């Protein structure tokens, strides 16, 4: 075979490459691409026919045409692989889109949570008393026997301690550390670090060894108030309780004080409110701060006097919203909580 024929084969190979590349670019499916590749690269293809003619060439010409044939095949195979990868990716995307399942739960509106009823009541009480000129004080929930009992005129062995089903903590000497049974220890701490006049409330969580029922919980919330100043009288206590009752419950409610006994006040009184239907409901205790308590807190009882009061935040929430079972506040039943 002459040199001119070898040149013609090389030209034919160039034409085959251009034609194959154009064909691969024009096909629109994988099946069409595979058919075009078989027609160009198969044994009976034009490329195969050129390779069959290599045996008739001189050795030098055979090398030139063979090299050109291999390069042609490499170019065609590279374009085929590129187009195949692109079309396979497109088919996968189309299949995934066709088979996609939307597992997102769509709701008509975005529901937001809200404060728990106890927290709402806590904040409402703070607003009322702050509006009356009181400050808000907080203290630790784990207390010493001194702050929880002795400073409040509960000496060791005092029978009134039996009213408090105390939960002691295994720290220090036996029965020296406890979960506070009321927020009165906060009042002691305020009197220790502040000079009169003192007008403060101390809301917080307290703990007692109570069995849960409709009116009791082992963990509940209290708010206590303390006033210490010169010339404070029992009349100031009664007026403060009446002002609070009307501010919190409304003008249809009124209050009264009944004689009672608490070690930390003298005289002492139960605090009741009268409901619109005429019935009375006990809410908490109150009284004039006992001179011993003032002295324990380094306040001169000859110069200063004061009053204190306290009631359960949880119980106030029940009264205000006409709930008949304290346990409902802590069952976390969404159907109940959504009402408030």
Layout of helices and strands:
Layout: H1 3-26, H2 30-41, H3 46-52, H4 59-99, H5 117-131, E1 135-136, E2 142-144, H6 145-148, E3 167-168, E4 177-179, H7 184-193, E5 198-207, E6 219-229, H8 234-249, E7 254-262, E8 265-274, E9 280-289, H9 291-296, E10 305-312, H10 313-321, H11 334-337
Parallel strand pairs: 1-5
Antiparallel strand pairs: 2-4, 3-4, 5-6, 6-10, 7-8, 8-9, 9-10
Tell me about this structure.
This protein is α+β, with helices and mostly antiparallel strands and 340 residues long. The protein folds into two domains: 3-99; 117-337, 2-Layer Sandwich (BirA Bifunctional Protein, domain 2), CATH 3.30.930.10. The protein has eleven helices and ten strands. The chain has helices at residues 3-26, 30-41, 46-52, 59-99, 117-131, 145-148, 184-193, 234-249, 291-296, 313-321, 334-337; strands at residues 135-136, 142-144, 167-168, 177-179, 198-207, 219-229, 254-262, 265-274, 280-289, 305-312. The strands form two sheets. The chain has a seven-stranded mixed β-sheet, with helices on both faces. It has a three-stranded antiparallel β-sheet with strand order 2-4-3. A hairpin with a 2-residue loop joins strand 7 and strand 8 (265-274). Helix 1 (3-26) runs antiparallel to helix 2 (30-41) and helix 2 (30-41) packs antiparallel against helix 4 (59-99). It is rod-shaped and about 130 Å long. The chain starts with a helix and ends with a helix.
Supply the key terms.
BirA Bifunctional Protein, domain 2; 10 strands; single chain; alpha+beta; 2 domains; 340 residues; 7-stranded mixed sheet; 3-stranded antiparallel sheet; rod-shaped; 11 helices
């Amino acid at each position: 075979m002459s040199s001119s024929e070898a040149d013609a084969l090389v030209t034919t190979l160039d034409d085959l490459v251009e034609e194959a590349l154009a064909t691969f670019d024009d096909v629109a499916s994988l099946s069409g691409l595979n058919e075009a590749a078989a027609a160009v690269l198969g044994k009976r293809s034009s490329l195969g026919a050129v390779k069959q003619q290599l045996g008739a060439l001189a050795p030098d010409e055979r090398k030139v045409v063979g090299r050109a044939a291999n390069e042609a095949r490499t170019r065609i195979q590279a374009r085929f692989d590129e187009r195949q990868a692109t079309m396979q990716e497109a088919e996968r995307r189309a299949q995934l889109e066709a088979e996609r399942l939307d597992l997102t739960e769509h709701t008509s509106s975005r529901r937001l949570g809200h404060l728990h009823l106890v927290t709402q009541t806590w904040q409402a009480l703070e607003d009322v008393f702050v509006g009356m000129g009181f400050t808000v004080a907080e203290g630790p929930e784990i207390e010493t026997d001194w702050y929880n009992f002795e400073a409040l005129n509960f000496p060791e062995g005092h029978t009134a301690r039996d009213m408090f089903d105390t939960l002691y903590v295994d720290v220090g000497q036996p029965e020296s550390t406890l979960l506070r049974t009321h927020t009165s220890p906060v009042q002691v701490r305020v009197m220790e670090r502040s000079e009169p006049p003192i007008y403060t409330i101390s809301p917080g969580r307290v703990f007692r060894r109570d069995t849960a029922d409709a009116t009791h919980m082992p963990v509940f919330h209290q708010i206590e108030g303390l006033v210490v100043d010169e010339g404070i009288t029992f009349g100031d206590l009664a007026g403060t309780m009446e002002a609070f009752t009307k501010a919190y419950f409304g003008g249809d409610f009124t209050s009264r004080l009944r004689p009672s006994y608490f070690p930390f006040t003298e005289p002492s009184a139960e605090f009741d409110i009268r409901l619109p239907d005429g019935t009375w409901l006990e809410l908490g205790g109150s009284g004039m701060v006992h001179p011993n308590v003032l002295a324990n807190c380094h306040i001169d009882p000859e110069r200063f006097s004061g009053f204190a009061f306290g009631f359960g935040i949880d119980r106030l929430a029940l009264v205000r919203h006409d709930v008949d079972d304290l346990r409902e506040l802590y069952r976390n039943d969404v159907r109940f909580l959504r009402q408030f």
